[in-house]
């Protein structure tokens, strides 16, 4: 453990990149670790990110990494984080602060002591690392699980999308499907309805839409189909419909899928018992990105409310970085 950093950021998506850029500009020695396995890798275009509307998600990450690495305090490591474990220190206690998770005791981070040990498995020829840091930022986002349909991955990112705000405009006026197995389908259908008057909600026999919700959706011209889905079908590279258990194929040109999301934080196993999380397992943070563990911060999709637009995730990363930088300076 020869290297010590002010900050280690886990994840180089919008939240991690924005946090990293802010911190290296504050001259904090910052290590950014990423495995280059983003959940939006299948998406061809990202939308809603100012000055970069329509850019590929991979291109956005490339530009962000180049900007980060242009600063002397920046280091990038291509690797998969194996563990983040605390190092015992005896910091002076500060008054507890109130945040989204309630009150907890904060500590003085200004003494320079490393508080976390981070180990990685290097990827693409990079070495394994065993390093320490005064602070850690969790920005690894979410793992998504799509409904178990044979061909759904073939259409995901082109004809089917998960982010309504990101891709609704491109689906305007088309015959759309909303496929999901959760209990929030009615709310998502209402959002989609601002772009099309031809929408059907497919619950695959699992998703929950109450009778009252179905009646209100019908007033908006939205139908609910509760039959089991066999597959998503298409031809010549274009989705054409939803095949149902009775053999009917309902014509659809594209639409949205509601995945199940879980935080990608398996490497935090030694700390999970101490982390405050919500019912979905998302990491609870205060209004400045602090978790319930002093020195550990989180930003982006792994925090409530979960998946969000790239611009919002980047903003949360920059906000957490600003507070982290101030915390490292200690009390007045």
UniProtKB/TrEMBL annotation:
Pfam families cross-referenced by the UniProt entry: Pyr_redox_2 (PF07992)
InterPro entries from the UniProt entry: FAD/NAD-bd_sf, FAD/NAD-binding_dom, Ferredoxin-NADP_redctase_2
Presence of the UniProt keyword Ligase in the record: no
Alphabetical keyword list: Flavoprotein, Oxidoreductase
Transmembrane segments: none
Catalytic reaction annotation: [thioredoxin]-dithiol + NADP(+) = [thioredoxin]-disulfide + NADPH + H(+)
Oxidoreductase among keywords: yes
Domain FAD/NAD(P)-binding: 5-317
Protein name per Swiss-Prot or TrEMBL: NAD(P)/FAD-dependent oxidoreductase
Organism: Leifsonia kafniensis
């Amino acid at each position: 453990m020869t290297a010590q950093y002010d900050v280690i950021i886990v994840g180089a998506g919008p939240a991690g990149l924005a946090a990293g850029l802010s911190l290296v500009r504050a001259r904090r020695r910052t290590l950014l670790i990423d495995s280059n396995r983003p959940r939006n890798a299948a998406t061809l275009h990202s939308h809603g990110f100012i000055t970069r509307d329509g850019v590929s998600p991979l291109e956005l990450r490339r530009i962000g990494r180049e900007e980060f690495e242009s600063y002397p305090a920046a280091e990038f490591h291509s690797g998969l984080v194996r563990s983040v474990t605390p190092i015992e220190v005896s910091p002076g206690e500060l008054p507890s602060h109130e945040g989204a998770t309630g009150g907890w005791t904060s500590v003085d981070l200004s003494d320079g002591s490393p508080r976390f040990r981070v180990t990685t498995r290097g990827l693409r020829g990079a070495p394994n690392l065993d390093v320490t840091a005064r602070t850690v930022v969790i920005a690894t986002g979410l793992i998504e699980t799509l409904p178990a349909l044979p061909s759904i991955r073939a259409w995901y990112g082109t004809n089917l999308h998960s982010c309504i705000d990101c891709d609704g405009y491109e689906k305007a006026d088309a015959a759309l499907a909303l496929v999901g197995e959760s209990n929030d389908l009615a709310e998502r259908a209402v959002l989609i309805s601002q772009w099309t008057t031809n929408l059907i909600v497919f619950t695959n026999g699992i998703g929950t839409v109450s009778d009252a919700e179905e009646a209100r959706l019908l007033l908006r011209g939205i139908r609910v189909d509760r039959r089991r889905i066999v597959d998503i079908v298409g031809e010549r590279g274009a989705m054409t419909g939803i095949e149902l258990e009775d053999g009917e194929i309902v014509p659809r040109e594209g639409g949205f899928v509601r995945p199940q999301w879980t935080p990608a934080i398996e490497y935090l196993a030694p700390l999970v018992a101490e982390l405050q999380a919500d019912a979905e397992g998302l990491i609870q943070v205060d209004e400045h990105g602090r978790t319930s563990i002093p020195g550990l911060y989180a930003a982006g999709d792994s925090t409530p409310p979960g998946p969000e637009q790239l611009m919002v995730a980047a903003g949360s990363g920059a906000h957490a970085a600003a507070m982290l930088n101030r915390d490292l300076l200690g009390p007045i």
